[in-house]
Q: What sequence folds into this?
């Protein structure tokens, strides 16, 4: 492709993206395909000769789009938002065009310097204490960095905390092996923390104690203090606490003001994971939720979730960058440069050496929207979530299960988990809305998150209508089902004809049947009916077919 063709195709691509976004609402929100669908549509081998652009793009529409889950769809209410906006896309495009790899200041000075400046901007917008900022005063030890994900921020913090604690222990026990010291380290988080904390501890070979949150799903200082006291009595050394502001399941907030002093007294690194909710702290009315932030050693939030910036853009700040980098520095000759004493080399702040020019897109977004524009966007999502909450509360068949402060509402139909599972699976299968579940206080709940960039009141009304219509249908069916439940005797369940019938059913019909049939194994029957074995064989065969390895 030469420059002239790139100019033309680039324009066409912009048109394609705009058309995609403007007509997105007409597509199913999630695809209706089975695993492996693409294998049948794409040749087994790469083409030997280059193909025409038109052919490639025509395959995008016919082969790729049918398998895309549309995260920017107005009916997408799963997980958290996936940040997206035109200025951000343009920023990424420019970064791709520049194509620099900014592992050190010298490798691309603007890439490094813009990252430091934009992280200072965002840190100030959020209201982080001055110590987290690079330019707060001439001697600041703090600063920000972009990582590719919140999981990486947590891992990097945990690795830094581990290095710091081992260094401290070495002073007291200079002749003890690092491995022995490592075996004494223990980290803490709440049961509500994201699974990336568990993963980080697993990678780092450190113990992790998962603590119970209170009834508001907030980790409290006293719980942490008790666990630390018990562990110290066993000769363990607390080294890392991960607190969450805005948990994944229900956007609850750990009590930093209580946890902070406990972590400090224990000499543990306090990381604050605010992957989603941290973005909302740019609004003054939410800053109260970060009370106690002055105790944090490091903090992360993802503009690629809730600040209109495309993945990947996870921002992280530390109060003491030297404590962070001491866990990561290796310095071969070929990466050294003459300005290293005066400049930041971001390769020491994370795991990969190579890094993209990600600061451009965040810089474009902040400048194009302004702080005010970004605040309006966050506030609109929070207002719409409150609107949805009111609709749920007004329907006595439902209950709201979280304290709705940001863009997420957790709700359920009053009744069994199974009923809620069915409701969610029917809604998702319809392709009309997409939501995911969570477990709150041991119960299955449905998460409704306001995700779309320009979400509107009419989207909330539409979503609620879909949910309540499905609930009506399901609750009606349930009452009919209860009356018509099939009660099989052991003889009937082993009847040849019935077993044959089961063998010929579609899997969805089998599932329906399973829900209706009362399992015939009762006190005096020791074996399940053969229809049940038949079902087992078919399920095993299906699993094997869909997973040939
Ligand atoms: N932490 C929290 C609180 C989250 O909600 C999530 C994801 O939703 C993560 C961490 C993991 O984020 P990432 O996908 O950026 O690693």
A:
């Amino acid at each position: 492709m030469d420059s002239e063709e790139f100019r033309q195709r680039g324009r066409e691509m912009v048109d394609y993206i705009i058309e995609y976004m403007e007509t997105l609402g007409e597509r199913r929100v999630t695809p209706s395909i089975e695993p492996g669908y693409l294998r049948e549509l794409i040749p087994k081998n790469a083409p030997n000769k280059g193909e025409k652009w038109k052919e490639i793009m025509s395959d995008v529409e016919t082969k790729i789009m049918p398998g895309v889950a549309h995260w920017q769809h107005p009916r997408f209410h799963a997980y958290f938002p996936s940040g997206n906006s035109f200025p951000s896309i343009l920023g990424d495009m420019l970064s791709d065009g520049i194509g620099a790899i900014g592992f050190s200041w010298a490798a691309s000075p603007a890439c490094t310097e813009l990252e430091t400046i934009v992280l200072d901007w965002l840190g100030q917008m959020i209201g982080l204490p001055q110590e987290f900022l690079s330019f707060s005063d001439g001697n600041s030890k703090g600063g920000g960095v972009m990582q590719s994900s919140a999981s990486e921020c947590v891992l990097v913090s945990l690795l830094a905390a581990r290095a710091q604690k081992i260094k401290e222990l070495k002073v007291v026990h200079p002749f003890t092996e690092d491995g022995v010291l490592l075996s004494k380290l223990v980290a803490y988080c709440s049961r509500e923390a994201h699974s990336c904390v568990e993963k980080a501890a697993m990678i780092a070979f450190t113990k992790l104690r998962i603590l119970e949150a209170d009834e508001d799903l907030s980790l409290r200082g006293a719980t942490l203090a008790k666990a630390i006291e018990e562990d110290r009595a066993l000769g363990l050394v607390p080294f890392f606490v991960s607190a969450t502001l805005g948990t994944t399941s229900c956007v609850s907030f750990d009590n930093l003001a209580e946890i902070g002093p406990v972590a400090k007294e224990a000499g543990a690194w306090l990381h604050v994971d605010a992957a989603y909710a941290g973005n909302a702290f740019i609004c003054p009315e939410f800053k109260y939720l970060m009370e106690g932030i002055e105790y944090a050693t490091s903090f992360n939030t993802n503009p690629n979730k809730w600040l209109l910036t495309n993945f990947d853009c996870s921002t992280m700040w530390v109060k003491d960058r030297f404590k962070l980098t001491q866990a990561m520095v290796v310095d071969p000759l070929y990466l050294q440069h003459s300005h290293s004493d005066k400049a930041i080399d971001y390769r020491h702040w994370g795991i990969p050496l190579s890094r993209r020019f990600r600061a451009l897109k965040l810089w474009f977004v902040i400048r194009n929207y302004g702080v005010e524009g970004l605040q309006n966007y966050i506030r609109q999502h929070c207002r719409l979530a409150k609107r949805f909450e009111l609709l749920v509360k007004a329907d006595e068949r439902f209950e709201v299960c979280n304290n709705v402060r940001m863009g997420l509402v957790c709700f359920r139909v009053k009744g069994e988990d199974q009923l809620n599972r069915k409701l969610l699976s029917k809604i998702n299968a319809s392709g009309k809305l997409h939501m995911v579940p969570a477990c709150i206080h041991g119960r299955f709940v449905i998460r409704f998150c306001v995700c779309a960039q320009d979400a509107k009141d009419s989207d909330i009304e539409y979503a609620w209508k879909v949910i309540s219509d499905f609930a009506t249908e399901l609750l009606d069916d349930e009452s009919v089902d209860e009356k018509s439940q099939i009660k099989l005797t052991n003889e009937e369940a082993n009847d040849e004809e019935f077993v044959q019938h089961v063998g010929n059913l579609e899997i969805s019909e089998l599932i329906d049947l399973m829900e209706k049939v009362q399992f015939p194994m009762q006190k005096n029957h020791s074996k399940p009916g053969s229809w049940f074995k038949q079902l087992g064989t078919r399920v095993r065969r299906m699993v094997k077919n869909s997973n040939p390895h």
